[in-house]
Amino acid sequence: ERTNIIELLKQLVTNFKMLYPDFQFIVDDDVKEDLFVNMYRNHLEQVFVNILDNAVKYSMDRKEVHVSISSSGEQVDIAIQDYGSGISEEDLSKIFNRFYRVDKARSREKGGTGLGLPIVKELIESYGGQVHVNSQLDYGTIFRIQLPVIEPESLPET
Ligand code: ATP
Ligand code: MG
C-alpha cells in the first residue's frame, strides 16, 4: 500500500490546528512534489498523531510545533519539534519502552498509557524506517522520522 505522506501530514496538521487553536503549527516543506511511502495510511496516521499529540501534551508556555519535511530522493525525513518540557538524557533511553512515562505523577495528570512511542517505533521500523529523538530538558524535543520513498507508479494508491 502506498500513502502520500505529504498530503497526510498536511491534513493531520489541519486537524490539529482545529483541535488546538491556541497552538501555532508551522509546516516547513522543502518538498514541493508529492512523496509516497510503502505504508498503510492508518499506520502512518497513528505515528504522526502520537508524536503531534505528545508535542501538544508536553508543551507549556510556548505553544508552538514545527513540522519540517525534506527528502533526499530515496528517503523522506520528517521532523516534529516542540518547545515543551523536554526529556532528560536518562529518560530518553526509556521512552520507547512500553508503559514508560517520565515523572509518573505529572504524566498521569496529562492522561495516557505510555504506549504511544513504542507503537511509533514498532510501526516505523516494521516498514524499514527509523525514528530518532533529540531533547533538552526545559527547552524542547524533536522527533525525526525517516522512511524510504517509493515510486508513485509502483503500487496502487489508497
Ligand atoms: P500515550 O501516548 O499512550 O497516550 P504517553 O504520551 O505518556 O501516553 P508516550 O507517547 O509513549 O506515552 O510517551 C512516553 C513518555 O515520554 C511520556 O509520558 C512523556 O513523559 C515523554 N514524552 C513523549 N513525548 C514528549 C515530548 N514531546 N516532550 C516531553 N516529553 C515527552
Ligand atoms: Mg503519547
UniProtKB/TrEMBL annotation:
Cellular compartments annotated: Membrane
Every Histidine kinase domain range: 1-151
Q: What is this protein called?
A: Signal transduction histidine-protein kinase ArlS
**Species assigned in the record:** Atopostipes suicloacalis DSM 15692
